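Notes from the pairing session

We agreed to fold both candidates in a single pass and log them together. This is the raw record for the first candidate, unedited. Please don't reformat it; downstream parsing expects exactly this layout.

Candidate A
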Amino acid sequence: MHTHHSVFCITPPHMLQEIVRNGSSTQRDLALRTLITSEQMRGQRRAIKSVAAFMGTAITAGDKQRSVYDAKNDSQLPGTLVRNEGDPASTDPAVNEAYDGSGVTYDLYYDIFGRNSIDNKGLKLESTVHYQKGYDNAFWDGKQMVYGDGDEDLPPADRLFNRFTIALDIIGHELTHGVTQHEANLAYWDQSGALNESLSDVFGSLVKQYQRKQTASEADWVIGEGLFTSNVNGVGIRTMKAPGTAYNDPVLGKDPQPGHMKDYVRTIEDNGGVHINSGIPNHAFYITALELGGNAWEKAGRIWYKTLTDKLQERSTFQQACDLTYEAASELFGANSLEQQAVKKGWSEVGITVGGDAPTGCLSAILGVFGISARAEK
């Protein structure tokens, strides 16, 4: 098995670029440093050939093992151990949020899908908080979670981001990148990359809904709830319920996500728009879950989980995701079941028809013109 771009960051590059364009000098400085750091991290991890080096200590099924480290505003990972499994709560809210958030994520995967941690082999859940100074991001680096503190050192009027452990859906999102890495291992560009991002949003949102015991209709379907300070006009980084409406802010710009194939964004930025076009499969899941009612993890979540673990492959497209979730629904709930019809409706409402032929992404199209088959980075 190979990994692609093993560092998966929550803050989309387009958002940081908008801050560099529109922000105050201090805001611009932090955004630029975050962009550079995130790219450097990606560059370092591209050399990784196998996830074998990242297999943590195997533990008994159902036996959570969590460790939280403090980077003390440095870049050295993992940092100083500050809380181990079973230790009492810390006086540091970031430590407790990282500990509790990874625990709830573990619980959703174990209780609902029978999965034993990120790799299904009991991988220890390690998190590092207080990474660098003014780091406006959080990421999964192939073996652990890393969280920045946002803009806590800026004057109150300049602060855009709170600490990144504050949003449970971000924790669930990033840890799900680890699940995808060990399963479909979706190549991180174009539609397969957007599916990679979307699956993290799906299960990140389900982690939050599971913790709050919310039904599909009660949930907010926002990713990054609570991450923005009151200075930002927005509810979060993305919304699965209404892609393109999560934020509209003078500094951060406007949410660029489409919710339908007719608005698909063809770009070579952001690995072919992985953080942008993910709005389309996100909305398909939201419609499916709403159509089925009740708790989204019980039916829609099981269909998407089976698709991720049994069906999707490295270069899967939106069209294939549509067909494979439809197939998974039949296998789980029966052909022509209400569940299968809900999946069909979910994709149909974003412009993708079961058995149809939805277009592929921009990078694939460009390469195709030159007769080159797209190869994922190994």
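Candidate B (folded immediately after A)
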Amino acid sequence: MSIASKATVSTVYPDSKKHYQILDGLRGVAAVVVVLFHILEIFSGGDHQRQLINHGYLAVDFFFVLSGFVIGYAYDDRWGRMSLKDFFKRRLIRLHPMIVMGMLIGAVCFYFSASPILFPTIADTPWWQLVLVMLIGFTLLPIPPCGDIRGWAEMHPLNGPAWSLFFEYIANILYALFIRKWTNTWLAVGVFLAGAALLHLAVTSPNGDLIGGWSLEPTQLRIGFTRLLYPFFAGLLLSRLAKPGHFGNAFLWCSLLVVAALSVPRLGGHEAMWVNGLYDSLVVLLLFPLIVYLGASGTVKGKFANQACRFLGDISYPIYIIHYPLMYIFMAWAVDNEVPMGEVWPAASLVLAASMGIAYASLKLYDIPVRKWLANRSLGPGKAP
């Protein structure tokens, strides 16, 4: 799975611009739901109808909407004072250190996730191949299915959700080279066409959903690009056109909307898959842009709300990009030992707590210092990426 723009908003916006703290918090809410979605995914037995927190996969699409909004708001009016080289430097500094950390954690956890049932090829993987895949992962270049060392045909077999960062980078490249120059009219046309493609994909999908994008093969690439383009375009257009209003208790209500949208049970059953696809498309096409608008229209009041938004925003990107290596181990343990769902909660709670703890430690001890060092060297003293 994208946090796409998994950047904390405050590290992107110029100091003179409003800091949309609620959007930070909402990104964190969605990221935590993703972790819970992945914890419970193993107990679906491969049947999407049985998955609890059923639509957690749509968090990626929500992240892409946030990404378009944040990128447009932060950078649209900076061209002329900022070169392409500066833009790419800022985005790399903001996103890439945690990609490296996620791949490193994935390599450390790799052999611990060996499973004769779930991952039967891991134990026979030579160390040099693991190191090679890790080094390629550091670049975020995708690995073709023939080079997958886990057996799931992932483009990033050490850290599956990095696929969404691959598409996030593509979005940043497209924005810097082309899309930023589009007028609002042309961008609206792009939103319409990309939205039509997303709706078609969702309602015609064999599984009745938008799941996919993580493999370097034609069908998966089509899904990945379709999931990227509408949300990113819509978020970007929203940043240009919307005039945020004043929405009370925005963090609470928007958080509830995000959690509810991602937790709705599967719709339509096996007989009418398109119903669930229609739900997916309507959530992405309409609800997610609305949530971003409402979040941008609110202010955080009270010490607890401020602390919650700050903490969730801080860990949103780190927890997304580091949790899945732990999930591989959890999945292998649960499958190999045939652990029923009713008995898995202590281990699941430990996985969630460990993900949050490692994410926070990575942020404070690694990500922030490394980004500060890189920014000072590449952008100049005191410059934030």
